[in-house]
């Protein structure tokens, strides 16, 4: 069984979603199904079919969350240090063409959110950065073409 690396914050986020889905969503959907059943003929009951679809989606996500939490390998970023980029590092980059500064934290696949500055360990940019240090240049294959970045800072925690 393959471990899923994640930060403590990512683990807590998944736990919270699981709790929400099991203690709030599940009972709400069960209530919607029983109300729809009370309307009679189930073969032509759109409310019933919609509620059953919601139930299927919710139960599928619960199973997925339980699997990921069960295989989680929590990495305490606050205990990491050094100049070499690895999981949990917050990296500040400068685009060599535009001089635009970007900051990314390398996190597990399940907690990646590019808008929040969190990139997945398996993303092209994270793979290009792993093992590099301050001052190194990296080239990343992006959808709009290759981009070159210089690493100007690496931090943990």
UniProtKB/TrEMBL annotation:
The keyword Transcription regulation applies. The keyword Protein biosynthesis applies. Gene3D superfamilies: Transcription elongation factor, GreA/GreB, C-terminal domain (3.10.50.30), Transcription elongation factor, GreA/GreB, N-terminal domain (1.10.287.180). GO terms for molecular function: DNA binding; RNA polymerase binding; translation elongation factor activity. Residues 82-155 form the Transcription elongation factor GreA/GreB C-terminal domain. Residues 4-74 form the Transcription elongation factor GreA/GreB N-terminal domain. InterPro entries: GreA/GreB_C_sf, TF_GreA/GreB_CS, Tscrpt_elong_fac_GreA, Tscrpt_elong_fac_GreA/B, Tscrpt_elong_fac_GreA/B_C, Tscrpt_elong_fac_GreA/B_fam, Tscrpt_elong_fac_GreA/B_N, Tscrpt_elong_fac_GreA/B_N_sf. Keywords: DNA-binding, Elongation factor, Protein biosynthesis, Transcription, Transcription regulation. GO terms for biological process: DNA-templated transcription elongation; regulation of DNA-templated transcription elongation. Belongs to the GreA/GreB family. Necessary for efficient RNA polymerase transcription elongation past template-encoded arresting sites. The arresting sites in DNA have the property of trapping a certain fraction of elongating RNA polymerases that pass through, resulting in locked ternary complexes. Cleavage of the nascent transcript by cleavage factors such as GreA or GreB allows the resumption of elongation from the new 3'terminus. GreA releases sequences of 2 to 3 nucleotides. NCBIfam families: greA, PRK00226.1-2, PRK00226.1-4, PRK00226.1-5. This is Transcription elongation factor GreA. It comes from Stappia sediminis. The lineage of its organism: Bacteria, Pseudomonadati, Pseudomonadota, Alphaproteobacteria, Hyphomicrobiales.
């Amino acid at each position: 069984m393959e471990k899923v690396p994640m930060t403590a914050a990512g683990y807590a986020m998944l736990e919270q979603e699981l709790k929400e889905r099991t203690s709030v969503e599940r009972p709400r959907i069960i209530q919607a199904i029983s109300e729809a059943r009370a309307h009679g003929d189930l073969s032509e009951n759109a409310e019933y079919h919609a509620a059953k679809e919601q139930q299927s989606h919710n139960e599928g996500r619960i199973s997925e969350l339980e699997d990921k939490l069960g295989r989680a390998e929590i990495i305490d970023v606050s205990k990491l240090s050094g100049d070499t980029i690895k999981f949990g590092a917050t990296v500040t980059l400068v685009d060599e063409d535009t001089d635009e500064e970007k900051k990314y934290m390398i996190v597990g696949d399940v907690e990646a959110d590019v808008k929040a500055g969190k990139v997945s360990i398996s993303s092209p940019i994270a793979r290009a950065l792993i093992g590099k240090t301050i001052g190194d240049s990296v080239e990343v294959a992006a959808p709009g073409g290759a981009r070159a970045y210089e690493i100007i800072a690496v931090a943990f925690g």
